[in-house]
Specification:
Helices cover 0% and strands 41% of the residues. It is an all-beta fold. Strands 3-2-1-4-5 form a five-stranded antiparallel beta sheet, with no helix packed on it. The chain binds zinc ion.
């Protein structure tokens, strides 16, 4: 699982309650690993249709799009 454009495995997602709140994570072995920059991991479930954004390029899509 990686960005289809730049092959980065560093992404972030937005809090559905607050679009200015973002949560950065890495993908390791297909598992989400939240980075502890701004506090604890988000209290939101990450599912197939959760929007995710690449941290290195302009790509964004759904979590399910990353799976090969
Ligand atoms: Zn990318």
């Amino acid at each position: 699982m990686e960005c289809p454009y730049c092959r980065s495995r560093n992404f972030y997602l937005k809090d559905p309650q607050d679009e200015y709140e973002t949560y950065e994570f890495d993908l390791r072995e297909g598992e989400i690993e939240f980075l502890d920059n701004d506090g604890p991991a988000p209290p939101i479930p990450v599912e197939e249709d959760t929007p995710v954004f690449c941290n290195r390029c302009a790509w964004h899509g759904k979590m399910g799009d990353l799976k090969k």
